[in-house]
Design a protein that fits this description.
Shape: rod-shaped
Largest sheet: none
Helix content: 55-70%
Distance between the termini: 76 Å
Number of strands: 0
Radius of gyration: 33 Å
């Protein structure tokens, strides 16, 4: 026998309404505060607080967006090349040239000679 299909939303809502009706039988028309609070509690417990669920989903979605934005910022943060005072920029290898992304070519103030980096390592 094939497995049963999941119940439709309409059927689930109908079943929840029946449960609430059974648990609160005879209490809905009572005017006492305690009975009315009990009816509310049972209704929320059975049906679930849909507004709370929506807020939780929205919060999770926002957290995911913030996490994604932080990931993008770390991946694409700009490379800064700093030169110490008194140091010649041509004695420092261009960070963009290292990655193969320097578009300045001869106009770049940093060195494009790989041997310069090897000298500084020693």
């Amino acid at each position: 026998m094939p497995p049963k299909a999941a119940a439709s939303k309409k059927a689930v809502d109908k079943a929840k309404a029946k449960i609430v009706e059974d648990k609160t039988f005879g209490l809905k028309n009572k005017k006492g505060k305690k009975q009315q609070e009990f009816v509310k509690q049972v209704t929320v417990a059975v049906k679930g607080n849909e507004a709370q669920k929506k807020r939780d989903e929205e919060k999770k979605r926002k957290e995911q967006q913030e996490k994604d934005a932080a990931m993008i910022n770390t991946l694409f943060k700009p490379v800064e090349q700093k030169v110490a005072k008194g140091a010649d920029p041509k004695s420092i290898l261009c960070q963009f040239f290292k990655k193969g992304q320097c578009t300045k070519g001869d106009k770049c103030k940093f060195s494009h000679d790989v041997a310069v980096e090897r000298k500084s390592e020693k």
